[in-house]
Task: structure prediction
Amino acid sequence: MPRYRLTVEYDGGPYCGFQAQAEQPTVQAALERAIEAFCGERIRVHAAGRTDTGVHASAQVIHFDTDVIRPKNAWVRGPNACLDPAIRVLWSHEVPDDFHARYSALSRSYRYLLLDDPVAPAILRGRVGWFHMRLDVDRMREACAALVGEHDFSAFRGAECQARSPIRTLSEARVERQSNLVAFTFRANAFLHHMIRNIVGSLVYVGADREEPAWIAELMASRDRRKAAPTFAASGLYLAGVEYDPELRLPAFRETSP
Amino acid sequence: MPRYRLTVEYDGGPYCGFQAQAEQPTVQAALERAIEAFCGERIRVHAAGRTDTGVHASAQVIHFDTDVIRPKNAWVRGPNACLDPAIRVLWSHEVPDDFHARYSALSRSYRYLLLDDPVAPAILRGRVGWFHMRLDVDRMREACAALVGEHDFSAFRGAECQARSPIRTLSEARVERQSNLVAFTFRANAFLHHMIRNIVGSLVYVGADREEPAWIAELMASRDRRKAAPTFAASGLYLAGVEYDPELRLPAFRETSP
Result:
């Protein structure tokens, strides 16, 4: 049975996360409904990352199996014709049947966009996080160094996290400013529940001069969630890419994706 | 009676334009309600530009008169505490009583943001216009030259336009690309109804190779609206600035504004 991989962009605002739940609007349910409407067959989608309520994706990756034969590009246009406008299929590709959107992923990249300005965003509300004063990017960058590598991330692990181990390998932790938007980029083999929003919360304490850059390393060493800052808002978080073996040919993401 | 000038950002999506209309949600009504709730007095706001349904503003300018005395910064925080989250006051300033947001304005700047990509925007839906194929920015830039200066803009005038004269002076018409977003900037003493969205529609015909760059000059000379392209979507249009006599001290706009 052919297996298709789709790259999907969505505004997470209207959804209770990716994963299907009875009676709740979810990205998975919307995608399955649209693909089924297009191909006339029951299908089940599997995603690289199960984003939380309100979290966006500029490049989520899903796969599904179907016996329905359609021209290649139809797997973009067909589902899009049936989908909510908050979700768009960007790209489709047939993949070998041992490809799995989640289990074949080598790493995931997330971005967190934060407006640091005295006034909350109106035009970008729901699309960025917000902090009411200018943050010091250099201090946050210095603090980020402690995050990179294989570490126990218990200090940034959400209470509902179901992962067996709190050990994760962060291969990238970057902070950049573009005028009054601060963009955080994190890449890891996998992330714990709320891990990025918890890290961003604590980095904001450092950027706002409330804690020293070395505090992040101390938090990590303590493995104590209660010592870290509160979880930052979902509205600024984007699943921005999923990396697979280069031989599986990466999709061409939108260039303007967050 | 003191007169205050506020700079206001809004997402025009939820509103039937700026100007108050009975039984319709408008930006003016929302602002008057919030300022009245804060100062406990009936006030009337006047705006530099009466944006249409769905049109945004990153820097609309309004003024109002009040006898209520409040600390200077309170005219930002107070109304914001009462306002819809789709509208934010960015800045306030007391102005001489002969200042008028509309009549003192020397010029207005608008930006039009357009995603040119095979797939419609999900995350930026309602915030940008969309065209399904890549546009040639150089061709559109060449076409823009014909727009600059004092001209009869009848070819780009909306049917409901109530202006006495179709003559306007365009001091700037610019097209830039940032990856797959095309940004058009127009500055003029004033604009006719739907003028920018009509110009953008015709420039898109040029950028898509459907018309030659010289066609824009021909349209202008014809003064015939029926020859031009259809009006482009409101979702990509932003009132991005209002210019006054420099002695009146310009507000500091958000740097990241579209």
Chain B has a mean pLDDT of 94. DSSP finds five helices and ten strands in chain B. Chain B has two domains: 3-104, 112-239.
